[in-house]
Amino acid sequence: MNTERCELLLKILERGSLAQAAEEMGYSASAVSRSVEAMEEEAGFRILNRSRRGIALTKEGELLLPAVREIAEAGKHYEDAVFRIKGIESGSVVIGTAYAGYYPMIAGIVRSFSEKYPRIRVSILDSTSSDIAERIEKGKADLGIISYRKEYAGRNSARWHTLIRDRLVAAVAKTDPLAKKKSIADEELRSRPYIEMHPGIESDNSRYFEKKGFRPDTAYTANDCLALYFMVKAGLGIGMLNEIIARELPDDIAYIPLKNAEKLDIGLLFPDERTASPAAKIFRRFVMGHIQTLSPFS
Questions:
Q1: C-alpha dihedral over 54, 55, 57, 58, to 10 degrees?
Q2: What pLDDT sits at residue 55?
């Protein structure tokens, strides 16, 4: 019996949904469905009943469940043993995040992970989503907490898990008339001095303007959100940043949603398991086991 199939089945039962189990485990919904079908074909009977009311085990599935749990647990013990033999205790893991709001949660996971694997070195990298995604593809990072990048997360070699949905907001001084608006249109972004974050580097901001087909009137630049905050507060212009970042900044400037802006998926990007190091593989499994602690803004 395939241990991975057993883990998927348990996740389906935990979430009550094939789609949710697929997202959390980093598979497509069709792949999870095929896994269940393969188990049923191998067993010679149906394991799951699927209806509008949800998913439930068949009578045969109920009888099979204790064995499924044992196989899944045995698979974890086997993988742990393999990792120890390969020298995982002296490995290293690099975590990249574009959002400082996740630092407390990352630190908590690293602490728990380090208690179990004290000799694995863990590094935290602060950068943009695009840069972190590229590092993961090149094998220079093992986990990214970033906004969705189809050109990386959409490939079969990577695993993606959505945590929350975010949006871009304009940062405006409270003395600016725009601060009283419920939303800010593109025309208003064009007409004001603009403070550009991460100049010359692809980011959620630059991708927004590229999609809209215009460039703002950049008067100043900033390389971090705190610098942007103080420049906006001083009345030098307006800026733009992710709402998840704005929540970590002081509220004595206004953060106004952009009119008709698309939502952004924020989540986890893992590298291809076929090329990931033993330390990266076990860290991924550890993180997915603590996934709820990484969803503080949902």
A1: 70
A2: 85
What is the pTM for the complete model shown?
Answer: 0.69
Compute the average pLDDT of residues 164-170: 94
3-85 and 168-262 agree in CATH topology:
no
Calculate the alpha carbon distances from 44 to 107, 135, 208, 247 in Å.
Answer: 46, 45, 52, 53
State yes or no: pLDDT of 166 exceeds 90.
yes
Pick the CATH number of 88-165+265-294 from 3.90.1180.10, 3.40.190.10, 3.20.20.30, 1.10.600.10: 3.40.190.10
Q: Regarding beta strands 143-147 and 92-97, do their DSSP bridges make them parallel or antiparallel, or are they unpaired?
A: parallel
